[in-house]
């Protein structure tokens, strides 16, 4: 590795080998060659003078790209597509005359970008399935474990640890629905010519429009797709890029929410992300167990969330049939967004699969707040046994204020229940007050909601993509 040059942290530290290959030169330029072969095969099948020998020669050199020749030619002609046409033709001399026949640069450039993005979306979908699968198991395991709910980051009614995990999953199911929408409506640019009119192909086929339409269908089918845009300029609509960036931003938002919650829970010592035996939490404070991976998720997610506006600006400034101010920009933005979301998903798989739950700490925090939450139930139980509601309400109000004062001013435990136990006005419930205070009496239908949500929302996804389950990520740093 040349340490004297800047290296992208996403490729050096964070993204997976799978996603890096998808955006590699090898994948890009072999796809260019596959597109040139598909075009030649389609043109031959529709009557152009192209031989099997030429096509077989091209197929024999799909993977052995001579990058030195291509780089030297691009330096000379300042055109990446023509440089690779020349490099391919140098290896396929008999096919050289028909490589790229009738096509514009965007035939290989744009169609390849769309194919690469689809491959990347497929990997994103696979990893998201595994995040949901892991969270499902976590939610089911802890579906009945009470925990403090929080609104405004202040203690509120109890929920369960599993129910909270369902909130995380629900965010991801919204993202998953949008991901499936994008993928199910996916289109290639197709075979459209320089400004999208297919004029060059009309010349090749003597103005036979049906053959030109058929060529478009043949090529997209050979490349594994069934749809192309009905009309384009020179490029596919750049709103496609914006929609993809927005989708990845949505996944990043969900990831940030989950990781943010874990960071707070780790501060409270209720739930921790996995911490390896030799891991160092702080260079100065040896005792610390910082939520480093959750923090990294948030850090990368913030970056991904910032990118859709870039796509919006590009889509809105594509004058007429196209401009070239999108090219350098999208080389950066699209790949970086996918590489970052890939790293986020790997981290999510790692973190959620190793979450540690400290139920005793969770219960300690519940007990600090539950007496206040239980006062209405205590009041109603006493009234049912002949007590005076107004008198009892005033006593509870006073005892609650006193207990709260001791907690806040003197740092003592919440002693509200012991105050109530000393007052004979509450004697009818003294014998079973601790049954009333069972935390599970305050979780409503949370445990049932977990099961219902998983059955209705999560299991159909996991069943549909069952072959994707079982993936485990590798974290490099």
Brief sketch in words of this structure:
This protein is mainly α and 477 residues long.
Written overview of the protein:
The mean pLDDT is 94. The chain is 63% helix and 4% strand. With 477 residues, the chain is mostly helical. The protein has 20 helices and 4 strands. The strands form 2 sheets. Strands 1-2 form a two-stranded antiparallel ribbon.
**What percent of residues are in strands?**
under 5%
> How helix-rich are the residues, as a percent range?
55-70%
User: Shape from CA axes?
Assistant: elongated
* Strand numbers in spatial order across the main sheet: 1-2
Task: Indicate the low-confidence ranges by residue numbers.
Answer: none
Average residue-wise pLDDT = 94
By DSSP (H or I, 4+ residues per run), the number of helices equals 20
- Please count the beta strands (DSSP E, at least 2 residues each): 4
Judged by helices, strands and strand pairing, the structural class is mainly alpha
Element string (H = helix, E = strand): HHHHHHHEEHHHHEHHHEHHHHHH
Q: Please state the CA-atom Rg, rounded to the nearest Å.
A: 31 Å
Q: Measure the end-to-end span.
A: 18 Å
């Amino acid at each position: 590795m040349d340490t004297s040059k800047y290296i992208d942290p996403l490729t050096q530290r964070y993204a997976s080998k799978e996603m890096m290959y998808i955006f590699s030169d090898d994948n890009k330029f072999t796809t260019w060659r596959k597109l040139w072969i598909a075009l030649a095969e389609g043109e031959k099948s529709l009557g152009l003078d192209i031989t099997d020998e030429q096509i077989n020669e091209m197929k024999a050199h799909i993977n052995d790209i001579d990058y030195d020749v291509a780089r030297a030619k691009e330096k000379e002609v300042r055109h990446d597509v023509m440089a690779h046409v020349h490099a391919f033709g140098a290896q396929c001399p008999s096919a050289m005359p028909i490589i790229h026949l009738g096509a514009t640069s965007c035939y290989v450039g744009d169609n390849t970008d769309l194919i690469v993005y689809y491959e990347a979306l497929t990997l994103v979908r696979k990893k998201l399935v595994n995040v949901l699968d892991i969270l499902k198991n976590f939610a089911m395991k802890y579906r009945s474990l009470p925990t403090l709910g929080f609104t405004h980051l202040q203690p509120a009614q109890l929920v369960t640890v599993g129910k909270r995990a369902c909130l995380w999953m629900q965010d991801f199911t919204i993202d998953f629905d949008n991901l499936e929408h994008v993928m199910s409506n996916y289109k290639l640019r197709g075979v459209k010519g320089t400004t999208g009119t297919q004029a060059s192909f009309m010349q090749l086929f003597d103005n036979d429009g049906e053959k030109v339409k058929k060529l478009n269908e043949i090529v997209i089918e050979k490349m594994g797709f069934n749809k192309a845009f009905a009309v384009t300029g020179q490029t596919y609509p750049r709103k496609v890029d914006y929609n993809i960036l927005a989708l990845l931003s949505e996944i990043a938002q969900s990831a940030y929410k989950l990781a943010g919650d874990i960071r707070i829970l780790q501060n409270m010592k209720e739930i921790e992300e996995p911490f390896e035996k030799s891991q160092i939490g702080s260079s100065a404070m040896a005792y610390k167990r910082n939520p480093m991976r959750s923090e990294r998720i948030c850090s990368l997610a913030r970056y991904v969330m910032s990118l859709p506006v870039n796509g919006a600006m590009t889509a809105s400034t594509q004058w007429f049939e196209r401009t070239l101010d999108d090219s350098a920009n999208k080389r950066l933005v699209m790949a970086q967004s996918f590489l970052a979301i890939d790293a986020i998903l790997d981290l999510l798989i790692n973190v959620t699969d190793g979450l540690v739950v400290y139920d005793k700490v969770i219960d300690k925090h519940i007990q600090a707040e539950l007496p206040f939450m239980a006062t209405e139930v205590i009041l109603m139980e006493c009234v049912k046994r002949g007590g005076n509601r107004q008198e009892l309400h005033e006593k509870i109000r006073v005892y609650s204020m006193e207990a709260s004062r001791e907690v806040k001013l003197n740092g003592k435990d919440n002693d509200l229940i012991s105050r109530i136990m000393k007052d004979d006005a509450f004697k009818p419930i003294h014998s079973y007050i601790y049954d009333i205070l069972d935390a599970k009496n305050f979780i409503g239908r949370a445990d049932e909601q977990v099961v219902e949500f998983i059955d209705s929302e999560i299991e159909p996804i996991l069943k549909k993509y069952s072959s994707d389950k079982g993936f485990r990520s590798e974290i490099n740093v």
